[in-house]
Design goal:
Number of helices of chain B: 13
Strand order of the largest sheet of chain B: 5-6-7-3-8-9
Largest sheet of chain B: 6 strands, mixed
Structural class of chain B: alpha/beta
Number of strands of chain A: 0
CATH superfamily of the largest domain in chain B: P-loop containing nucleotide triphosphate hydrolases
Distance between the termini of chain A: 27 Å
Number of helices of chain A: 12
Helix content of chain A: over 70%
Structural class of chain A: mainly alpha
Number of domains of chain A: 1
Oligomer: heterodimer
Number of strands of chain B: 13
Strand content of chain A: under 5%
Radius of gyration of chain A: 19 Å
CATH topology of the largest domain in chain B: Rossmann fold
Number of domains of chain B: 2
Largest sheet of chain A: none
Radius of gyration of chain B: 23 Å
Shape of chain B: globular
Strand content of chain B: 25-35%
Chain lengths: 256, 343
């Protein structure tokens, strides 16, 4: 953990750039929906509702995004996995530390920026309800774990194929629409939204955001969201364990 | 002495995709992939006693690194067994990894942007080394490797030699019983090579550590290991004393010359066998014991711009020593050279 934090401190400038890149997407989406909603609410979403939603997306996406597949792909194909495999600690620990070291400060910066914005712009204020906020934090942590395991397990496919990252990019593209990063899920065509409900995408961005903005209200909505989060967490955990143990045997230990 | 490393009939077979050249070849490979089996390591057996230092020699692609990767548990073998530091490398898990270190000369594990000290601390946490042990070992390694203030500079600012010294220190903080070193002096200048050789010898004596190293430098081998394993095309060709190997091949040194004036090939033949002649450069092979005398005469008699005395490259040693068995593929012939097979 200490090393991961120190490395990130070394890369202050890069991290600032990644942070800007990370919030550009929700800002652009907000800009588009803001002008669409000029003539009145879109399917119940007013301009202010869109603003709250995309502030939420910026925070949740930052806290849950996953770049691990690219790292692992590089470790495996470049031979950097070798020394990691001879240490008495699974490489996933390093990835977890790396994630926490990057996400904790950057998410805090977004949260602080949101707080400052809320002082001057009442539209993005969200009611202070400790219970709801606590549930939102739990949902964000679960979402981060799902996206992390999803990315990590997909990256481990590099044990077999040299195109593991292509699969991850496909998931990344799907997640733009199906996780609610481009638009709130309720604005998607009903069939698409219904299809997405059975995948993990809605539960890694949309669900935590909607807890924050107050769109999730009933006990059954909470139960359903958390249940799906746990189901997908278990599925990706099992897939990670499977790919890891099989991949180790298949490993060609290239390089060096 | 108990054995620290026992390899029994280790074999690694890779499936390599065969593809004909051109677009047609690419399309055929896509539609109907064909595989060819390559035996990277073929039925290799040996045993190394605790505290021994053994050098693994062989040309590029001979199977040295693949064997090391199997013994460190990185690669699973296609056949065969092994025991390293009392553990099975593939099922030994973390207790096994605690007992070994694997240093790759061309891959670094130091945290690139941080001083080596941070990698040391990270390794202390990973290997669960107590603070008292850590302080003592760190002090010892800093002294033996003459690290000084290197450990406070970011790794990316260190020279290759400095980095390798820090790599070794980082890899030894948990005091492994068995060290696997893959080309530890690769690309280093002579002084750094020397420091690392001296260090490894000293470290082995102090801690009764077992070392299995691969190297392209004959000097690494002569300084560190009394016993060598020679592997070529995946097969173990020789297992025995280095001195015996040298006696077995023509015990020669190579004198490499750069001449400042043209000298006829016939004239050079007076000093030794001309192995290579491309004026102004020439290489002579002379008996080991007369190398110094021959050099002195060459410098006195001829206009020599530059002269260096070298051991024949390992490829050459292998070629000379096994020239007669190289063509043969009969395992019996190869096995006859192996003196120390495991029980």
């Amino acid at each position: 953990m200490r090393s991961a934090f120190l490395i990130d401190l070394q890369y202050r400038a890069s991290i600032a750039i990644w942070l800007v890149w990370g919030i550009t997407e929700p800002i652009i989406s907000l800009g588009i929906w803001w002008s669409i909603a000029a003539g009145g609410a879109v399917d119940g979403y007013t301009r202010e509702a869109f603003a709250r939603y995309f502030f939420g997306v910026a925070l949740v996406n930052q806290a849950t995004l996953s770049w691990d597949a690219w790292n692992i792909d590089r470790w495996i194909r470049g031979g950097e996995m070798n020394y990691r495999l001879t240490r008495p600690i699974a490489p996933i620990h390093e990835a977890v530390a790396d994630n926490i070291a990057y996400k904790a400060p950057t998410a805090a910066i977004i949260l602080a920026a949101w707080f400052v914005a809320a002082i001057f712009w009442p539209a993005v204020r969200i009611p202070f309800e400790p219970g709801r906020w606590t549930l939102a934090i739990i949902a964000i942590v679960l979402a981060a774990a799902i996206r992390f395991l999803n990315g990590y397990a997909s990256g481990l496919l590099a044990f077999w194929t040299t195109r593991a990252t292509a699969l991850v990019e496909l998931q990344f593209g799907l997640s733009l629409f199906l996780s609610g990063r481009i638009a709130p899920l309720s604005l998607l065509p009903p069939r698409v939204a219904h299809f997405a409900e059975y995948l993990w995408f809605p539960y890694v961005v949309s669900f935590p955001v909607e807890i924050l903005t107050g769109a999730v209200t009933t006990r059954s909505q909470y139960a359903r969201g958390f249940a799906w989060q746990i189901v997908w967490l278990v599925i990706w955990l099992l897939l990670y364990m499977l790919v890891w143990s099989r991949g180790r045997r298949h490993y060609g230990a290239v390089g060096g | 002495m108990p054995n620290a490393i026992v390899a029994t009939e280790l074999t690694k077979i890779y499936d390599v995709k065969v593809r004909d050249p051109g677009i047609r070849g690419a399309l055929t490979a896509l539609a109907r992939p064909r595989y060819r089996q390559v035996r990277a390591v073929d039925n290799v057996s040996f045993a190394i006693e605790r505290g021994d230092a053994v050098a693994f020699l062989g040309p590029n692609g001979a199977g040295k690194t693949t064997t090391l990767k199997m013994l460190t548990g990185l690669l699973f073998p296609s056949a065969g067994r092994a025991q390293v530091a009392g553990c099975n490398p593939w099922t030994g898990g973390n207790p096994f990894r605690q007992r070994i270190a694997f240093v790759l000369g061309n891959k670094q594990q130091l945290l690139w942007d941080l001083p080596p000290e941070e990698t040391f601390r990270l390794n202390r946490a990973i290997y669960g080394v107590s603070l008292a042990d850590y302080s003592a070992r760190r002090a010892e390694l800093v002294e033996l490797l003459v690290l000084g203030d290197l450990i406070d500079k970011p790794a990316r600012q260190l020279s290759l030699g400095e980095r390798m010294k820090c790599e070794l220190a980082a890899a030894l903080l948990h005091q492994p019983e068995v060290l696997f070193l893959d080309e530890p002096t690769l690309g280093l200048d002579l002084e750094a090579q020397q420091t690392i050789r001296t260090f490894l010898g000293e470290y082995r004596q102090r801690h009764d550590a077992t070392i299995l190293l691969t190297s392209h430098y004959m000097a690494d081998v002569t300084a560190l290991a009394s016993r060598v394993l020679i592997i070529n095309r995946g097969r173990l060709l020789y297992d025995g004393e280095l001195s015996e190997l040298v006696a077995r091949i023509a015990p020669i040194k190579r004198i490499e010359l750069v001449l400042s004036e043209p000298v006829a090939r016939a004239r050079l033949e007076e000093y030794g066998t001309v192995a290579h002649y491309a004026p102004p450069r020439a290489t002579l092979e002379v008996p080991r014991e007369t190398a110094t005398a021959a050099s002195t005469r060459l410098l006195a008699d001829l206009a020599v711009a530059d002269l260096s005395i070298q051991d024949p490259p390992i490829e050459e040693v292998i070629r000379i020593a096994f020239g007669e068995t190289e063509a043969s593929t009969e395992p019996e012939v190869m096995r006859a050279d192996v003196r120390r097979a495991p029980p």
